[in-house]
Structure formats: C-alpha cells, structure tokens
Amino acid sequence: MNELDVFLCTDPRDVGCDQVMEVLHVYAELVAGDPTTAEERYPGVAAHLRACDPCGTDLDGLLELLRTADTP
Ligand SMILES: [Zn+2]
What we know:
By secondary structure, the protein is an all-alpha fold. It has helices spanning 3-8, 17-33, 35-41, 43-51, 53-70. It is globular.
C-alpha cells in the first residue's frame, strides 16, 4: 500500500492525534478491561489508533504500564 492509498483509506471517524491524547489514558484502561467496549465507546479513537503509528505506540506503552501496575 503506497502513501496515497493510506491517505484515501483514512477513516472519516478518525478524531486526530490531539483528541486521542486527551482520552488515551481512559481508553487504555478500557482496552485493558475489554477492548470491544473500548472500541464501541470511542470509535473515533479506535479508528485513529488503527491509522496512526505514534499514537498506537503510546497506547501500547500505557497498556504496558497498566499490566505492570496490576502485577502483585
Ligand atoms: Zn495520532
């Protein structure tokens, strides 16, 4: 897939990096509990995370923190 195809495939629900950053900590906690619920509650965030590598990496980092915090 070339860059033009990536651009054309951008999901119209995609809320963009700024809004994702505002709710990412909440979204990460939802994903840690139930990923399906997280996607239903924040479809725009889910759409963005599929399209944006840097934000996906941030989510992975938050999930890693949550997993570590859950360890007794
Ligand atoms: Zn982003």
